[in-house]
Automatic annotation (TrEMBL):
SMART domains: TPR. Gene3D superfamilies: Tetratricopeptide repeat domain. Pfam families: TPR_11. This is Uncharacterized protein. InterPro entries: TPR-like_helical_dom_sf (IPR011990), TPR_rpt (IPR019734).
Length: 90
């Protein structure tokens, strides 16, 4: 059901575990369509794009994620996010 984003998140994780980044990306995009504020899908989608080699898309998503959620993160999560953003810029 397109109104419920959580199943898309889980299916995306299953696809990622199988090495199917395209399937994972599709699912996480659908999750964000259903709920643009679904932070876990936002982050997972960004990392999938980074792993797929699309650093520009990953950077855009991670920058938006940082703008929305950085103030809620613990220091270790902030460091991890900043490292991913830096990786996009290399």
């Amino acid at each position: 059901d397109p109104e419920y984003p959580a199943p898309y998140l889980g299916l995306g994780h299953a696809y990622r575990q199988q090495g199917n980044l395209g399937g994972a990306i599709y699912c996480w995009e659908k999750a964000l369509e259903a709920d643009p504020d679904f932070s876990q899908a936002h982050f997972d989608l960004a990392i999938a794009y980074l792993n797929a080699g699309n650093k520009t898309k990953a950077f855009d998503l991670l920058s938006e994620y940082k703008k929305r959620y950085y103030h809620l993160m613990i220091p270790a999560e902030k460091e991890r996010l900043d490292a991913f953003i830096e990786q996009c810029q290399k």
